[in-house]
Amino acid sequence: MKRCIVGVLAATVMAVGLLTAAPQAAAGCLYGGPTLGRCDGPVQPDGTWERCLVVAQWVPRGASSYLAPVKHCQPMSLGRPPADPNFAEPPVHIDG
């Protein structure tokens, strides 16, 4: 039981650490919905930016299974839809 509690606590601390890490200047984040969070990096001179999603992934460890945050990033731009539809909302840069 202690290992399960420690595992859940560790996963929670990791998720909070990923979500509260300071994004670069001119970046914005949205929290909640189907993801733990989605953050956009600054817009580059060519009009592109990087969007990162943090999702919970189940890690099976017998009786001590837990959810761990996993970060996925993909380049974005206004005229080009992302390859993964999970990155599409919102279709514009998230300003912070």
Automatic annotation (TrEMBL):
Keywords: Signal
Phylogenetic placement of the source organism: Bacteria, Bacillati, Actinomycetota, Actinomycetes, Mycobacteriales
Endpoints of the signal sequence: 1-27
Protein name per the record: CDGP domain-containing protein
InterPro entries: CDGP_dom (IPR056271)
UniProt keyword Signal, yes or no: yes
Tagged with keyword Magnesium: no
Residues in CDGP domain copies: 28-95
